[in-house]
Amino acid sequence: MLVAPSSMLAPSIQANPVPSEFIPLDSRRFSSRATLPLKSDSLWQIKTGTVRTLVCLEDGTVITTGIWGSGDLVGQLIPTSNYLTIECLTDVEAVALPLTPYDPLYTQALVAHLQQAEDLMVIRSHKKIDVMLLRLLSWLAKRFGRIVEHGQLIDLRLTHQDLSELLGSTRVTVTRTLSQLEQQKLIQRIALRRIVLSEEEVWHYEI
Question: Is the distance from CB of 16 to CB of 107 less than 8 angstroms?
């Protein structure tokens, strides 16, 4: 059986440019691993950089619900008992926009968040960790990758812990699986925790 290419996942919905009538309430810069404060009267639009949204369950389990970049809207879109955190994966510039659930952009952001949650749920549904990790890397390459000489560069500085929380696995398991995929020449790890995905090889990966 072959691993399904990342194109089988639904395309991510990107936030549309914000109309000129929206006047930013607050434009701020955040350093890597800082958290964006949640605002009841607005959503954050990412101008530069990358963030992840995550929830912490009562038992301490951390679940990453999405990875967001330039143009995306993040915030407490759905009331929930689980505390939402917006963590910067890089240095980030973001602007607070006064949006309510009745605004079209708010609805678009909600759909995008639900879509990412579904994509990640499908990825986590695989029983084998190597398949799961390859599907995740293909998904990240689709959103944040760029073509380089030997494949697609995923230009995100994700730690092994970050990847394990995306998959609902453990850091040790992710570290071992990354080494396995590198030995099989399916990926190449380069400086600054970045990964090059050999897309052509992934198409022929047998499970």
Answer: no
Q: What is the pLDDT of residues 70-86, one digit of tens each?
A: 999 999 888 765 678 99
pLDDT in tens, 90-101: 999 999 999 888
Residue 201 near residue 207 (C-beta atoms within 8 A): no
**C-alpha angle with apex 70: 66 to 72, nearest 5 degrees?**
50
Alpha helices in the chain, H assignment, sequence order? 104-124, 129-144, 160-167, 171-183, 199-203
Q: How far apart are CA 182 and CA 205, in angstroms?
A: 13
Strand order in the sheet with 62-68: 62-68, 51-56, 83-88
Instruction: Report the DSSP beta bridge partners of residue 190.
Output: 194
Q: Which helix (DSSP H) or strand (DSSP E) does residue 198 occupy?
A: none
Q: Which of left, alpha, beta for 144 (phi over 0: left; psi -120 to 50: alpha)?
A: alpha
Q: Token pair of 136, please?
A: 């995740």
For residues 1 and 20, what is the distance between their CA atoms, to the nearest angstrom?
50
Q: What predicted TM-score, i.e. pTM, was given to this entire model?
A: 0.79
Please provide the size of the chain in residues. Answer: 207
